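Propose amino acids for all 298 sites.
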C-alpha cells in the first residue's frame, strides 16, 4: 500500500469460518477497526484477543462498518443474514465473498441496493492460509466506485481485480477458473488410473506431467488469440492430429478397463470438427460447436 493511501477503515466481517477468520485477522493486523459477527458467537473469541469488537446482532455489525465483508457458507446464508440488517445497510459498501452463482450475485446486489448500499461481489481464489498473501487472488465485480474507494483495504486480503460492473462477472470468472482446474484434475486422475493399470505409481509420473503442463500453459495465449479472432487457419496443432491422439487415449483406456471419462467428450468435439471439414484447423477451433451448440456427431 502506498504511504499516502494509508488510513484506518471501519470494516465489519460477517462470518468467521475458515475464510472469514483470517480475513478479519489480516485487517486487524493492519490496524483497521474490525467488528465481527458470527452465527455461533464463540468463534469470535480468538479475534477479540486480536482486537476485534464483537457485535451481538447483524444489524449492530453493519452499523459499525463503512465496509461490510460477507464470508458465509452459501448464498442463502448471505441473503438471509443481510436481510436482518435492513435499513442499517444504508450508505454501506457490501462486499459479498460468499461463493454464489452469477444470478444470485445479481439478486443480492438488487437486495442491498434496495436498502441504499453499494454492492461488490467477490470470488476468493485461494485457501485460508493464503489470505493476506500474494498467493491468493480475489476477483470482484459490481460497483466500480465502491471498489476504487476500498481498493487499498481489499488489496490487503489478496491481490484484488475488478472485472466490470455486472455483479455476476466475478462468479462467472470464478467458475471458468475452477473449470480449467477441474479439467486438469480430471485428466490427472484418469492418467493416474491408466498408469496404475500397468503398475506405475502416480507420484513417479508427477514430475513429467508438471513439465508437460508447463509447456501447455505457454501455449494458452496463442489458443486464446485464435479463439478471440475466430481464426484457426495457422494453428500449430490441428484438429485431425489431436483427434488421432485422443482417439488413441480413449481406445487404450478402454482396453485397460479404465473409463475414458473426460477424454471421450473431447474426442466427440474433435470428431465433429473433422467431420464438418475443419480437420486442418487449429485445436482451438473445437470451441466453435460449444459457442453454437448443435446435435452430437454420431
Ligand atoms: N475454505 C476455502 O478454502 C474457500 C476458498 C475460497 C472460497 N471459499 C468460500 O468462502 C465461503 C466461506 O467458506 P468457509 O470455508 O469460510 O466456510 P466455513 O468454514 O464452513 O464457515 C461458514 C461460515 O458460514 C456461517 N454460516 C453457515 N450457515 C449459516 C447461516 N444459515 N446463517 C448464518 N451464518 C451461517 C458459519 O457460521 P457458524 O460458525 O455459526 O457455523 C461460518 O461462519 C464459502 O462460500 C466458500 O465456498 C472457501
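Proposal:
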Amino acid at each position: 500500500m502506498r504511504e499516502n493511501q494509508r488510513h484506518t477503515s471501519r470494516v465489519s466481517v460477517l462470518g468467521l469460518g475458515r475464510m472469514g477468520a483470517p480475513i478479519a485477522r489480516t485487517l486487524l493486523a493492519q490496524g483497521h477497526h474490525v467488528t465481527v459477527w458470527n452465527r455461533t458467537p464463540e468463534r469470535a473469541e480468538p479475534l477479540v484477543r486480536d482486537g476485534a469488537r464483537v457485535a451481538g446482532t447483524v444489524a449492530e455489525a453493519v452499523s459499525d462498518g463503512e465496509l461490510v465483508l460477507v464470508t458465509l457458507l452459501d448464498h442463502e446464508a448471505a441473503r438471509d443474514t443481510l436481510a436482518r440488517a435492513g435499513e442499517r445497510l444504508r450508505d454501506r459498501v457490501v462486499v459479498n465473498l460468499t461463493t454464489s452463482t452469477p444470478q444470485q450475485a445479481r439478486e443480492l446486489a438488487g437486495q442491498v441496493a434496495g436498502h441504499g448500499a453499494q454492492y461488490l461481489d467477490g470470488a476468493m481464489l485461494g485457501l485460508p492460509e493464503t489470505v493476506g498473501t500474494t498467493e491468493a487472488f480475489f476477483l470482484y465485480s459490481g460497483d466500480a466506485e465502491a471498489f476504487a474507494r476500498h481498493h487499498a483495504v481489499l488489496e490487503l486480503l489478496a491481490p484484488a481485480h475488478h472485472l466490470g460492473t455486472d455483479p455476476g462477472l466475478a462468479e462467472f470468472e470464478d467458475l471458468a477458473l475452477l473449470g480449467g482446474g477441474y479439467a486438469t484434475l480430471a485428466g490427472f486422475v484418469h492418467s493416474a488410473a491408466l498408469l496404475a493399470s500397468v503398475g506405475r505409481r502416480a507420484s513417479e509420473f508427477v514430475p513429467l506431467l508438471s513439465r508437460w503442463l508447463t509447456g501447455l500453459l505457454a501455449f494458452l495465449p496463442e489458443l486464446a488469440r485464435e479463439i478471440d479472432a475466430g481464426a484457426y487457419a495457422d494453428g500449430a496443432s490441428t484438429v485431425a492430429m489431436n483427434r488421432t491422439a485422443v482417439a488413441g487415449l480413449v481406445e487404450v483406456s478402454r482396453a485397460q478397463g479404465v473409463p475414458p471419462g473426460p477424454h471421450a467428450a473431447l474426442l466427440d468435439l474433435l470428431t465433429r470438427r473433422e467431420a464438418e471439414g475443419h480437420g486442418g484447423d487449429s485445436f482451438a477451433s473445437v470451441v466453435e460447436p460449444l459457442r453454437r451448440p448443435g446435435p452430437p456427431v454420431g
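DSSP finds eleven helices and eight strands in the chain. The chain has two domains: 3-165, 197-291.
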